[in-house]
Amino acid sequence: MEGWDPNTKSALTKIPLLTTKAGPRDGAAWTARLKEEYKSLIAYTGMNKSNDNDWFRISAANPEGTRWVGKCWYVHNLLKYEFDLQFDIPVTYPSTAPELELPQLDGKTHKMYRGGKICLTVHFKPLWAKNCPRFGIAHALCLGLAPWLAAEIPILVDSGMIKHKDDASSSGES
Amino acid sequence: MEVELKELLNDVEQLKNSSSDPNHLPLILKLEERIENLTNLAKSANSRRNKVKDMSAEVVDSNPYSRLMALQRMGIVENYERIRGFSVAIVGIGGVGSVAAEMLTRCGIGRLLLYDYDTVELANMNRLFFRPEQCGMTKTDAAVQTLSDINPDVILESYTLNITTMQGFETFVESLNNQKYRQTKNGTGVDLVLSCVDNYEARMVVNQACNELNQTWMESGVSEDAVSGHIQMLIPGETACFACAPPLVVASGVDERTLKREGVCAASLPTTMGVIAGLLVQNTLKYLLNFGQVSPYLGYNSLKDFFPTMAMKPNPQCSNSPCLERQKEYMLTKPERDAAAKAKMEAEALLVVESPVHAENEWNISVVDDDDEMEKKDPAHINSDALPAGLVRELPSADDFQTLPVPAEETSSPIDDLEELRRQLDALNA
């Protein structure tokens, strides 16, 4: 964990760890796992709100809890950039991490795989594998997506690849 | 197109007959010649060969299988035509998978199942197989287009799906299990699965499916720097599965940044991919047609032209539960395997007629018995793997099935309701 900023570290220690090693094909065990996922997501979201660091919304898109959709945002130069966030729980979960997708950014950066899957290979996958099955969705957002946004969004904005929504509409009117 | 050209030829003919100006005649004749050439070209472009009922060994230019059937005459393969009865599934139709599919198609494999969710892009053109005009097509459809032209005898099934999603996985397993074409001895509908994917997640999914189905498969991979690769044969329960050994970064704790440069997209070479596809299909043919030695693992380091081979036993503490089940089944059949191996040895021993190698012994050379050596060679002791005094094994021997200590059940059952939790998160999201 060296190299991580103190804020991420302290947030991470407060997200409840999970115990059930079960994937979406494991029936009742998956339900138990899903409950743990919810608990850690609730704790993490609540913690972000109380620290005035709210930065995502995520909820299950199907009753089985295998597909998740929501939003995430990042503030750069006092402007808020918001993106759709989606991912599937892979059949081999939790041995393999969910592949977080930002479909609106597909093709705009090379630190991304097909379909807007953000590149987690270097900074997150080894951590996930070492902490299986204790890490869940909340950890993937905290250690996978948050650092990716912090590294990529400023570059994408400064290079003009993405525009703020007010900026885009005003330039459209003129 | 041929009809149009014929009409054109008629029109020119009429023009020739009606035209009175003799100056036009050479031009019209030239025109006719050009139309004839075009007609021939159009004919050859459309010539797709008909299906062949039986593979023939006849050596004529028009026989697509003469060179393959010659493998029998050369004493390499006993019955090459068996290949038409085999089904092979290829997961990932990229730089390795597409070339492997073409090789198997040209070899006259019975049936190919192709899985990929991606489309062909110009960025794929540094590899073999796909053509620029196929850009935008799904890889599976583009592959079927080319492969059915090359060899119409092969039954091709194309599955455009992502096997790591729940739905994709179900279709994947169902298609492997479909026994309409043929039933294999392990109860699935395919003889071999070839994994030609480019990421860890998809390999773990193929591993999961094959462990559950007790399906033998081969894994292949090319390194990110494009200069090395490997193939590996995985027989559930008998050899290590893909989850038996954790990835290097997890096992050793080394910083992955030392292995991989950040922010650089993966490199690829048509050469390395072609070599790996060739090794993979060669191993496949040896496995299916029963010739030579099937490699359990074969590496390829192109910088030093080094080809390491090794075999890996399954991990009795593997994290994949179907793998443990297969290991147990394999252990339980050990007596049968030993008996079969013994019977084979005896049958082979019978074939060797005992006779003195040298009739004369001019120098009176004789072999002296060595009791100690004899004991070591006793068949009962060969498999005992006894360690020298003072050494102990850290891990249990894989030759006997060990039941793992079951971790103590968590007594704190989740009391709260899933719906309640969902409502709580929604409230936070609002």
SSE order and pairing:
The complex is a heterodimer of chains A (174) and B (430).
Chain A: H1 6-14, H2 28-50, E1 56-60, E2 67-76, E3 79-88, E4 112-113, E5 117-118, H3 125-130, H4 137-158, H5 165-173
Antiparallel strand pairs in A: 1-2, 2-3, 4-5
Chain B: H1 2-18, H2 25-45, H3 66-73, E1 87-91, H4 97-106, E2 111-116, H5 139-150, E3 155-160, H6 166-177, E4 192-195, H7 200-213, E5 217-222, E6 228-234, H8 248-252, H9 270-289, E7 297-301, H10 321-332, H11 334-351, H12 371-377, H13 379-382, H14 418-429
Parallel strand pairs in B: 1-2, 1-4, 2-3, 4-5
Antiparallel strand pairs in B: 5-6, 6-7
Helix pairs in contact in B: 1-2, 4-5, 4-9
Structure, explained:
The complex is a heterodimer of chains A (174) and B (430). Chain A has 174 residues and is α+β, with helices and mostly antiparallel strands. Chain A has a single domain, classed as Ubiquitin Conjugating Enzyme (Roll), CATH 3.10.110.10. Chain A contains five helices and five strands; from the N terminus they run H-H-E-E-E-E-E-H-H-H. Chain A has helices at 6-14, 28-50, 125-130, 137-158, 165-173, and strands spanning 56-60, 67-76, 79-88, 112-113, 117-118. In chain A, strands 1-2-3 form a three-stranded antiparallel beta sheet. In chain A, strand 4 and strand 5 (117-118) form a beta hairpin. The radius of gyration of chain A is 17 Å and the shape is globular. Chain B is of the alpha/beta class. Chain B is built from 14 helices and seven strands. In chain B, helix 7 links the parallel strand 4 and strand 5. Chain B starts with a helix and ends with a helix.
